[in-house]
Structures are given as C-alpha cells and as structure tokens.
Write a structure and sequence with these properties.
binds zinc ion; 294 residues; 15% strand; Rossmann fold; seven-stranded mixed beta sheet; alpha/beta
C-alpha cells in the first residue's frame, strides 16, 4: 500500500531504562511506525532505581510499587508509539550520587559482564531480525552507568548477531545492515532552540545549561543522519508524558512550544557507525541504502 511505503522494514532501538525510548528518537520512531516499519524496543533494565522526577507523583504508594508503576508507564508509552518491546531483564544500576561516587550496587546491569548481556540481546536480534539497530554513543549520551553499559552491550551484540560462531545457542545468525548512535541531545540544537525562544520573547529553559556546556564541534560533526519528524513531535510528547513518574509536565521537556521546535530543528539526529550497505552520508533516513524487504 502506498500509504505504508516502509512495510517490511524492521528497526530495533536498544535503551537502558523505560522512558529512554520516549526521550530519544521517539518522533522518528513514530514516523517510521506510521510508514509501516516494525519497531521493536529493547529495554535493558526495569528502571528500578530511578528517582521520581515529577513532584506530583511523589507519593508513598507510588514509591512502594515503583517497579510495577514503571512497567505500566512503559506499556502506555509503547501503545502510544506503536512499538513492541522486550525487557532484557537486568536491574537498574542507579545514578551514583556523591563525591567520591559510591560503588555500584551488587548485581546491577553495569556490573554484568558484557558477554552475558550481549548473549541475551543477540537472541532478540536473531528473533526480530532488524535491518537497523540504534543505541547510545560510547559516552552513553549522558554518563549514567546503564547508558554506557547499554552502548557496550549493543555494539557487542550487533557484531556477534551475524557470526555463526558467536553464541551458537542463541538462534540463527542475522546481520543487521546498519548501526546508529543517537545524537539528538546536541549542543547546536539546544543553542538554536535557546536563541529562538529569546527571539520570541520567551523564557528559555537552556540558558544555564548552555553556559556550562563547552562547544564540541568535532563531536557534533559526527552526526551523519538527520531524520525529519516534526509531524510526530506531538506523539513523542504523549509518549514522554506516559512516564509520569519520570517526567514533570511543567518541566524543561515541554517548555519550548512545538511550533518553535518544528521551525528551528525539525529532525532527530543520528550517527551512522557501521554500515554493511552502500549509504553515502549525510543522509536523512535510517534505511537509506537498504533494499526493500521481500
Ligand atoms: Zn536512561
């Protein structure tokens, strides 16, 4: 059907916690789903150690059942985005607060050997058989230990999934064509949004943050791929709001009007890291160069 030009393509996002799928790449996810792509999210941990970041949800009944509450939030978010999802089954490492940082809690995801976690992910890759896999860059996008572990495990699994000698008990080999890192939280974008807010005579939520964030042009130059997805910013916001314990509806996520965002930065941005197909960069599509599935 011409309305679903991407039927047959499969995209897998590997994320650290429930809510990451809605805060990173969610608008392009919604766009690809609308175009017929099957999108599968793998969530490495249950988010058991996430703090409650929305003052309205800071209630004893929610704190006592945080794991279950976050599962329900995730169910809502995946319905809104139109994705399927698996839990990789590891336990949130938590944000190590303090100076010096405290040791990571026993048994948490960031302490699991990469091989062990990669085998589980390889199994899911071989079952779902994605054409494209996304994960975080080597800094984790932000330096949460679970985000860095997510990067390491995803890269290892992307390489191993197509290798018949690797994890032979984890299914039939399948080599995804492309691996991407998320880069949407980049400084030029934040700066452009900040400037646009000031130009509209509005308060920018990013002034302080920008003062502390030194420009890193070489890092930003790693972006290869900008996917237009502003028609889906509303879906992205609804998915974020589904994670009610993690997202303050009055917070910085929603401070910038969607029309301003669509005007100033209508894309989500990625870095193509590995490609087994011919796909010259820059590009505007995660599936560029991948032949239409039969
Ligand atoms: Zn996270």
């Amino acid at each position: 059907m011409s309305q679903r030009p991407r039927a047959g393509y499969r995209l897998m996002h590997v994320h650290a916690h429930p809510d990451d799928e809605s805060s990173k790449g969610a608008a392009s996810t919604a766009r690809y789903v609308a175009e017929g792509v099957d999108v599968h999210v793998v969530t490495c941990t249950g988010g058991e150690r996430g703090s409650i970041l929305n003052p309205k949800m800071e209630r004893p009944d929610i704190l006592a059942n945080i794991t279950e509450v976050r599962r329900q939030e995730m169910e809502r978010a995946r319905d809104i985005l139109g994705v399927t999802q698996d839990w990789l089954g590891f336990v949130d490492s938590g944000w190590p607060d303090g100076d010096p940082k405290p040791p990571l809690p026993e048994g948490c995801f960031a302490l699991v050997p990469v091989e062990e976690a990669a085998e589980r992910l390889v199994r899911l890759i071989r079952e779902f058989r994605p054409h494209v896999v996304t994960t975080y860059d080597e800094r984790g996008g932000y330096p949460h230990p679970d985000h860095i572990a997510c990067h390491q495990v995803s890269v290892a699994a992307f390489e191993a999934a197509g290798d018949p000698d690797a994890f032979p008990d984890a299914g039939e080999p399948w080599q995804p064509a492309k691996l991407y890192y998320h880069h949407s939280f980049n400084r030029p974008r934040m700066e452009a949004l900040h400037e646009a807010m000031l130009a509209h005579g509005l308060d920018s939520p990013w002034g302080e943050r920008l003062k502390e964030w030194k420009p890193e042009p070489e890092w930003d130059a790693r972006i290869t791929t900008r996917v237009p997805c502003s028609d889906y910013f509303g879906v992205r916001d609804q998915a974020l709001l589904a994670h009610a314990t993690q997202i303050d509806p009055d917070g910085h996520w929603f401070a910038i009007p969607r029309e301003v965002q669509a005007d100033v930065w209508p894309t989500e941005d990625f870095e193509l890291v590995v490609s087994h197909v011919d796909s010259p960069t820059p590009e505007d599509d995660l599936f560029a160069g991948i032949p239409a599935p039969q």
